[in-house]
Amino acid sequence: MRPDGLVTVTSAFDAPMTLERLTHALGVKGITIFARVDHAAGAASVGLSLRPTTLVMFGNPVGGTPLMQAEQTAGIDLPLKALVWQDAEGIVRLSYNDPVWIARRHGLGDGTQAAVRALAGALAALARQATQGD
Fold this sequence. Notes:
alpha+beta; TATA-Binding Protein; about 45% helix; globular
């Protein structure tokens, strides 16, 4: 994890397949996908180019609500998000904010640590499922 809380993993797949694997893994876990933002399509709509860059917003009230109950400002970082993107060298990556960093950012106390650990573990597992071969 970087000091700014960003976790980035390299994918073994192209961007569309990484995105498909991520959304499939979310669906299997019963996690709601709230939005999908295709930044490259947005850029193309105004005549600009952008390498594949798609943001997926997802979550489950059971996981996120305890954080917001402790400190409502955590809602700025929830629902959780994952960015599937291709860098200038053609390498596909998946990035997300580490829940431990989110907790620190909002000054969440000991009462939320179990929820934070659960979210961190779930995100790491989802990232592995999306980016690594079976």
